Every structure is written in C-alpha cells, then in structure tokens.
Amino acid sequence: MDEKRVSESAVATSQVMMPQDANPSGNVHGGVIMKLIDTAGGVVATRHTRCNAVTASIDRLDFHHPAYVGNLLTLKASINLVGRTSMEIGVRAETEDLLTGQIRHTGSAYLTFVALGSDGRPIEVPGLILETEEEIRRNREACDRRDLRLAEKKQEKAHQSKIFDRITG
User: 75-114 as b/e, with b when 16 or more CB fall inside 10 Å?
Assistant: First the structure.
C-alpha cells in the first residue's frame, strides 16, 4: 500500500453562518460547528484512504471564541497520524467577521476515523509521508495523544470490569 503526503488529503472549507445555525441571540450552536468539524475530518480521512471512513471518537474539542450569524466559518483539516486501520485528523475552526475582517480561532478538535472495506470491516490505511517540520511536530503530538487514549481506554475497561464483577457477584 502506497504512502501519501499530508497535503494530498488536507482540506479547507468555508461557509457563512446563517440564522438557522444559531440560537435567538445569534450565537452559532456548538453542535453545528461540531457537525461541520466531523464532516471536514471525514473528507480528509476519505481522501487519504479512498474508501469509506467513519468517526470512531472525538478526542478533544475546545471552543475558544464564539461564532455569530453572518460570520464566515472556515475549517482547516489535515491528517496527523495513521495507525493500521485508523487515522487522527486535526481540525481548526476559524471565524471571520466579514465586515471588519477580524479572524478568530473558534475551536480545534482531534478526531479518530476508521477506514472500512466494502464489507463494513476495518481495513488497513496508507502510510503517511511527513514533509515539513510542522507535520513532524503534529505527528509527534498525535502519537502522545494516541498513547493517552490507549491508556485511558485500558483504565476504563478495567473500571467497567470491576463494576461488572461487583454486579454479578
């Protein structure tokens, strides 16, 4: 399986936030932004694998500044790390006030996607070619996040097992 460059799957997309995206005060719902982040991440995962990819988890999603009706929301997404069947995608959301030109970092998220074959089962993904210092840094940080995710998953599994043992006697 061939390796692919980060730039081959990266995506940037923009759309104006409309009244249906917001509450009565004009603040865009976090869920609207979350859906758009998930969509952008899914495009990156699909472009990298050229097959169906599904969201396995959202590792972290932080909102830094609000988005308002009339703002241009821009999502920048790229692949940070590949495993055997999974990928971590980083997505940055920025809003631009179209009247003033002010750009604000609205939020960032790390999502894990799993590539699926035609039978709906996980399949191997292409490797990743890291070309820039930023890509190398992002990959290194993604490796650290993966290690944390795996440790948390192991701890949660042990906790669930204890609860099950307590319940079943």
Answer: bbbbbbbbeebbbbbbbbbbbbeeeeeeeeebbbbbbbbb
